[in-house]
């Protein structure tokens, strides 16, 4: 026995086997598959390392740029992925991972995803998707009905009409927003007289023909960064995304919006689109959509609502009123991999008028022909997986009542956590939850007293120190691996709009409990008392003492 390691071989027979013969039941890959299928939560808990590892160390596992000449065994690669990739991934399904818009998934999404991958359909064309195309049309129709509430006869007429589309399936909210604004741009500069339309002749000729000095998209200062990308990609330039001031509750100010529109009009700038937000990324705030729709109508602008986060609130009879006015939008974005609880990588946009999508219609003789039922004719992306199957499954298995429960619980949990924060003397609630997102920070009782009495310069010094404290606590808590909250920067009106770093919490995971939330606050309080933060805490209290008139006993 030489003990020589058996090596994989590249051959015609080996390639055929890789495509046709599954791994043996006792192989590494098969065991991983069985573990995931039998106990997903346990698999993730066991194999993902909770303690943060420096990314530079992780990069060493992926440092070789050469493609191997010789193959390796599937089980060898599976073990590598387990040890080097899975172990250093993020446990987004953990009930204590409450910092981002990612949650646990319903158990059925995993086996159904296998079916989707095995079929490997391409939704650009019915020739490569067949039944997946009408399913995708149905999903778009179901979400369209959730938003616009048309009757059954409407959907019998439009849902499967090969000449029209109720929306577009996309890889996420970014592409969905881009698609909506692509439609808005082309519709803003249609063919007329000698002009063949922006889609044919371009933005420069469109502006010249219609006598405009530019085109603009308006959105609140809390607008998602994907809208800046859209302005860039669409040729308008990032400066053409015009930010509008928000009120103390992080909602767009209608008077400021109208003033901006009037100003742009005077400058001969075409108001191409106005974007409302139904659930801002940072605070979960919902713009006054009803009033925004009126302004959009007044200035002849396309009204788009980015409901990537908050759209599923429409499932809740208790909270759907928060979305009032969304049915007046020309287009609405949903992110299915957020509160529709579908795996990462799918969003969609729906259009109020089924004829709108024709503004971006395109054809190719070899694949997307006029009159076909292909949805690829009105999508930015060409080849797309059949992710609509997973949305369809969620809508059927969870149904309206199931999603309603999930939405209601998330909002209720956020309100409970807000009460826990306001009831704790050493924490400050910065933004109350309108949906299920809130922000707060560690701010000892005496510091809160000082802030209430401080002048603007004193408050600025205290907030600068609190920013460093917040950053330390958030970073350290993440590194310890017990829990995760994110951080962002807001400009609260109560502090004269000084930039304040705050903890940001998203409560969409149904497995997150009140006890877990209590543990998170307890750990943050303990981190504030650690030696690594002592100097900064001393500085913070010195600033507070300067306002309140001398030191007092403050910490155990």
UniProtKB/TrEMBL annotation:
What the entry lists under PANTHER family is as follows: CYSTEINE SULFINIC ACID DECARBOXYLASE (PTHR45677:SF8), GLUTAMATE DECARBOXYLASE-RELATED (PTHR45677)
Family of this protein: Belongs to the group II decarboxylase family.
Superkingdom to which the source organism belongs: Bacteria
The record's listing under Pfam families reads: Pyridoxal_deC (PF00282)
Could you say which cofactors this protein requires? pyridoxal 5'-phosphate
- Keywords in alphabetical order, please: Decarboxylase, Lyase, Pyridoxal phosphate
- By what name is this protein known? 2,4-diaminobutyrate decarboxylase
InterPro entries according to UniProt = Asp_decarboxylase_pyridox, PyrdxlP-dep_de-COase, PyrdxlP-dep_Trfase, PyrdxlP-dep_Trfase_major, PyrdxlP-dep_Trfase_small
């Amino acid at each position: 026995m030489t003990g020589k390691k058996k090596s994989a071989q590249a051959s015609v027979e080996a390639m055929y086997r890789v495509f046709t013969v599954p791994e043996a039941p006792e192989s590494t890959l098969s065991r991983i598959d069985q573990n995931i299928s039998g106990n997903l939560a346990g698999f993730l808990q066991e194999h993902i390392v909770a303690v943060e590892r420096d990314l530079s160390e992780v990069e060493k596992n992926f440092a070789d740029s050469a493609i191997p000449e010789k193959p390796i065994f599937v089980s060898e690669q599976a073990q590598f992925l387990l040890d080097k990739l899975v172990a250093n991934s993020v446990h987004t399904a953990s009930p204590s991972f409450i910092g981002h818009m990612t949650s646990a998934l319903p158990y059925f999404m995993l086996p159904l995803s296998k079916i989707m991958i095995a079929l490997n359909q391409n939704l650009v064309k019915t020739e490569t998707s067949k039944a997946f195309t009408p399913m995708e049309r149905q999903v778009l129709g179901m979400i369209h009905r959730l938003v616009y509430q048309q009757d059954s006869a409407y959907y019998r007429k439009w849902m499967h009409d090969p000449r029209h589309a109720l929306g577009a399936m996309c890889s996420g909210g970014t592409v969905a927003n881009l698609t909506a604004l692509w439609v808005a741009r082309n519709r803003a500069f249609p063919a007329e007289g000698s002009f063949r339309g922006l889609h044919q002749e371009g933005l420069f000729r469109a502006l010249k023909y219609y006598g405009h000095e530019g085109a603009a998209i308006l959105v609140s200062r809390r607008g998602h960064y994907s809208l800046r990308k859209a302005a860039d990609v669409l040729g308008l330039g990032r400066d053409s995304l015009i930010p509008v001031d928000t009120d103390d509750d992080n909602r767009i100010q209608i008077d400021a919006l109208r003033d901006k529109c009037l100003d742009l009009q005077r400058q001969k700038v075409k108001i191409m689109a106005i974007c409302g937000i139904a659930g801002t990324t940072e605070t979960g705030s919902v713009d006054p959509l009803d009033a925004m729709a009126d302004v959009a109508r007044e200035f002849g602008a396309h009204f788009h609502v980015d409901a990537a986060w908050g759209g599923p609130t429409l499932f809740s009879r208790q909270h759907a009123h928060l979305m009032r006015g969304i049915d007046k939008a020309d287009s609405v974005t949903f992110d299915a991999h957020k509160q529709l609880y579908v795996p990462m990588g799918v969003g969609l946009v729906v259009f109020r008028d089924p004829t709108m999508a024709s503004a971006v219609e395109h054809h190719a003789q070899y694949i997307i022909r006029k009159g076909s039922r292909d949805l690829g004719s009105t999508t930015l992306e060409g080849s797309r997986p059949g992710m609509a199957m997973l949305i369809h499954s969620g809508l059927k298995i969870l149904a309206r009542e199931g999603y309603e429960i999930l939405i209601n619980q998330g909002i209720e949990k956020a309100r409970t956590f807000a009460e826990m924060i306001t009831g704790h003397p050493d924490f400050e609630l910065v933004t109350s939850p309108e949906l299920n997102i809130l922000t707060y920070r560690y701010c000892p009782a005496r510091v809160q007293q000082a802030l209430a009495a401080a002048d603007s310069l004193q408050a600025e010094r205290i907030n600068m120190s609190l920013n460093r404290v917040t950053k330390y606590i958030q970073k350290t808590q993440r590194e310890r691996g017990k829990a995760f909250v994110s951080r962002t920067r807001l400009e609260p009106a109560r502090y004269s709009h000084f930039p304040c770093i705050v903890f940001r919490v998203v409560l969409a995971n149904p497995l997150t409990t009140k006890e877990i939330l209590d543990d998170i606050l307890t750990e943050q309080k303990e981190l504030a008392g650690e030696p690594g933060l002592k100097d900064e805490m001393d500085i913070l209290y010195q600033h507070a003492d300067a306002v309140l008139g001398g030191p007092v006993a403050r910490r155990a």
